[in-house]
Specification:
With 278 residues, this protein is an alpha+beta fold. It contains four helices and 13 strands. Helix 1 packs across helix 4. It is globular.
Length: 278
């Protein structure tokens, strides 16, 4: 078994703001309605890029998809054909919300399930991933599970900086493939300056008779794998910083209005960096 660990410092997310934003988002969707396939917020504006394809809005089994962009035709486009839809499995804003996304592309089918407990003040987030290619055999089949105990996360980051880290990781993920298994844990702790120190641990091992083979491969590939792992964690920390920088520092009705605007307006395109001259 190979074990990789990396710790990064990230800016802290304000818990009251996060839970308030989650509550406003859930309330906006709970008060929305469907009209001609469009999903309308309470003020009558349609949610950008989202349409009801089948079923009844906010009822189990309702199927949603993206609205086609202007100018897009119905004919086949160049490149691989991709189909994607999101199915609502459960909508109980006071207890649990569950959705399932199914994507099929070039024979590969990937299902992603997301369940959020206590959506208005999120407590537990569970994500499942299953992929397979019916024509590819067992090597083209994989699965994964991630559970984030947000209550345990807040308890870990609200400890005194001098206290030992939480004994149990608030975030645990597992990936299974015919060739091996992987386990990922994420454990935060507060820093002296109010930021968070997040430790990410990845354990990988082969399965069954392939364990000796996997051990030999990891023996020679350990350094590049470890570099890739550290880079992945660092990149995630940078993306977290960018996301926090874009969040509005608003509360109450102003925050609710900002969230409604974000749901109904198309996102602004990101500026592409200018190519460096030689």
């Amino acid at each position: 078994m190979a074990r990789f660990e990396h710790t990064v410092g990230i800016a802290a997310l304000d818990r009251p703001w996060f839970e308030e934003a989650a509550g406003h988002t859930v309330d906006l969707f709970d008060a929305s309605r469907e009209q001609g396939g469009a999903i309308l917020l309470p003020d009558g504006r349609p949610v950008h890029g989202l349409r009801l394809l089948a079923g009844r809005h906010l009822q189990p089994g309702a199927r949603y998809g993206e609205a086609p962009e202007e100018g897009e035709g119905s004919g086949a486009a160049d490149g691989p054909v991709t189909s994607e839809a999101t199915v609502l499995r459960e909508w109980r804003p006071s207890r649990s919300v569950e959705v399932e996304n199914l994507t099929e592309e070039e024979g590969m089918s990937v299902r992603v399930g997301v369940r959020l407990r206590d959506p208005r003040t999120p407590r537990v987030l569970e994500v499942s991933l299953d992929g397979h290619n019916p024509k590819g055999g067992a090597l083209y089949r994989f699965s994964g599970r991630v559970k984030a105990d947000l209550g345990a996360w807040w308890a870990a980051v609200e400890r005194h900086p001098s206290a030992p880290p939480a004994a149990r990781a608030p975030v645990v993920g597992k990936v299974t493939h015919r060739l091996g298994k992987g386990r990922l844990t994420v454990t935060p702790r507060p820093a002296e300056d109010g930021s968070w120190l997040v430790s990410v641990v990845l354990s990988v091992r082969g399965r069954w008779l392939l364990r000796p083979v996997a051990a030999v491969v990891l023996l020679f590939a350990r350094r590049p794998v470890e570099r890739g792992f550290r880079k992945g964690v660092d990149d995630a920390a940078e993306q977290w910083a960018e996301m926090l920088a874009e969040l509005p520092s608003l509360h109450g009705e102003a925050l609710r209005a900002e969230i409604a605007d974000a749901l109904t307006e198309p996102p602004e395109p990101r500026e592409q960096p200018e190519p460096k001259s030689l």
